[in-house]
């Protein structure tokens, strides 16, 4: 197909979708709340029990942490512009989920929903596709040709964290960025991960870490319409929620990252009588390598994998603690974590701490000058701080250290922070 044909097709689609925007069908989809939270998982929701999502497959550019730009393919929301990764779709257990994919790319694309059963495509069971009769497999599921659409539907029977991604020319298309997350809320409530009372979390402390990777030569070749041999694929960037550090700690919807809406900063409060529940982090690996993610400071409690609660045949709790959460390619892990003020620090109960001599320390710019949570202290002349109210910042990062890199620029990639604020009420902005 000529590029000019494709442009006209796309214009026609835009006009058609502009009309759709005035129908009730399109209005069932909304991008979470009007003022989304600055940190934490941003859900795209639609009315239960028949949520309908209108997705695009389109191209755009994102900013890399070394200040280069990268041509990407991604799923997006019709009318919302390019975004990467695809929207985090949140539905309820038992919902009949409908996803219409409008393909704006110049190759066939599709969506597979690993973990979902009996997925329908255009009203019939989704089918693999082959290059002619008896030919090689070209798509794991029914695809949408360039410039057209396909509608998938399935019943979200199992709560948990799931991937959705391209099932067509999968290795290339997922590497180009065609992936997103699907979160299925259990019947027990949106503040539970599974239908287990011990999977409850603090609703305002729900985080997601979508871990991915980029070989820039694949993306350059695709942008220029050139061939790229996937046998030569080698990742040179590693990302968290479509961003590399330090962009990863910027707010959701940071204005200078218009195509990368999802931040990765985790922000929690210490465990206390008024704050008894843990936070949850949903880890997803859409790359080709293990990502041993390491939340410093406290072990995580792994409660589920791939949409399965860790429990025995009689419901026995098989959750286990982990120092580094080793997410394999294609896996999702659900991890609870919390922060304890184990020694009950207060100004009247100062916990003895030996602070190293100043000549032996490097004061990070988020350090508040005091080893005590909630306390700010005087810093040496010439030092600056971004600390706001004596909060703690703890690095969380992928522990495959060669991945903390942006095409040769070290200390970037899948790094973020865990921010712990003093218990409420506090003086934090
Ligand atoms: Cu570390």
Sequence-ordered SSE layout with sheet pairings:
Elements: H1 3-20, H2 24-27, E1 29-30, E2 45-46, E3 52-63, E4 69-77, E5 89-92, E6 96-103, E7 120-121, E8 124-125, E9 129-130, E10 137-139, E11 149-155, E12 160-165, H3 170-175, E13 179-185, E14 206-214, H4 216-223, E15 237-240, E16 266-268, E17 279-285, E18 291-295, E19 300-305, E20 308-309, E21 320-322, E22 325-327, E23 332-337, E24 392-398, E25 405-406, E26 409-410, E27 415-420
Parallel strand pairs: 3-6, 5-13, 14-17, 16-27
Antiparallel strand pairs: 1-2, 3-4, 6-11, 7-8, 7-11, 9-10, 12-13, 14-15, 17-23, 18-22, 18-24, 19-20, 19-21, 19-23, 24-27, 25-26
The structure holds copper (II) ion.
The site of copper (II) ion (CU) has 3 residues, from loops.
How is this structure best described in words?
- This protein has helices spanning 3-20, 24-27, 170-175, 216-223, and strands at residues 29-30, 45-46, 52-63, 69-77, 89-92, 96-103, 120-121, 124-125, 129-130, 137-139, 149-155, 160-165, 179-185, 206-214, 237-240, 266-268, 279-285, 291-295, 300-305, 308-309, 320-322, 325-327, 332-337, 392-398, 405-406, 409-410, 415-420.
- Mean pLDDT is 91; it is low at 1-34.
- The termini are far apart.
- The protein contains four helices and 27 strands.
- Helix content is 8%, strand content 31%.
- The chain is mostly beta strands.
- It binds copper (II) ion.
- The site of copper (II) ion has 3 residues, from loops.
